[in-house]
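Figure S7 source data.
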Amino acid sequence: MHRGMIALAGLAALAVGGMAVPAQAQDKPVVALIPGLTTDAFYITMEKGAQAAADELGAELIFQGGPEFNPTVQVPVLQAVTARQPDAILIAPTDKQQLIAPMKQAFDAGIRIITVDTFIDDGVYQDGAGEGDFPLSYVASDNVLGGEMAGDALAKAIGEEGKVYVSNVKPGISTTDQREEGFKKAMADYPNIEVLETQFNDDDANKAAAQVQAVFARNPDLKGVFGANLFSAIGAADGVKALGKTGEIRVVAFDTPTRIVDDIKSGLIDMAIAQHPYDIGYEGVKAAVAAINGETIETSIGTGFTVMDASNIDNPEVRERIYSE
Ligand code: T6T
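Tokens for the predicted alpha-D-tagatopyranose complex:
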């Protein structure tokens, strides 16, 4: 037989009900994980959890992402992954609105969609409402609650009075929008705290550091900064250090790479909220494989937090939650 005919015969064998089924569907379930960006300890840790679940369940995991937390970078990655026709895609969409259409294309190609960490649209899926209703589930931290916890911790650290602000990534990202919302909600209970205008840093720690210095130049009585994600928090700490204001301008952080933990030990950061990205990846793959097997899955799966501060930073069960790098 001619080589081309063998290939054709192979294809025919994979045809089910007139539709060509991708080869991998005959074998193990294939789950793709598209992070917000690849070079972020949060998503590196998530990949580890995802891989652990894939190994346990006999699934194949594809981890593919871009170098920046940016829809312009993420959309072509999503399109490339869609072309590979995995059985399911887990994605951390980098914008609530801009990812809806390209994710819908993947869904229309027959791929099951689950969002991890961030959500699209209103984040409430499968309720029959909205353009972004098609994902099967959202696996994530409770980001409003985390923002409230950060707000209360910063309020306590500054003696419940003075000026503070949020160092944030950019508007339109579900997680960091919700953290700011929770933070402001908590601050509403402290009448002597003034929340200054949010500073957006585009996920660039250097920019976040420069912003601390600029805000301080305008407000020499600045008392505290909430770094709403890993790069915002590292930048906030760098900015305070560069000003020589360690311990005077207090910092609370979201996310816990080693660097943030070091800053807790040195007194530069008062408190940090560790998300559980390993669990997000693990639960995400578990849900994806269940959906591939035809099971009904929860439309919302919540994972926890570990609060880290000077009082517990040496406890082994706390240190377990430091992100992998
Ligand atoms: O805080 C995490 C993640 O939850 C957020 O959506 C984006 O930023 C991080 O990846 C940390 O850099």
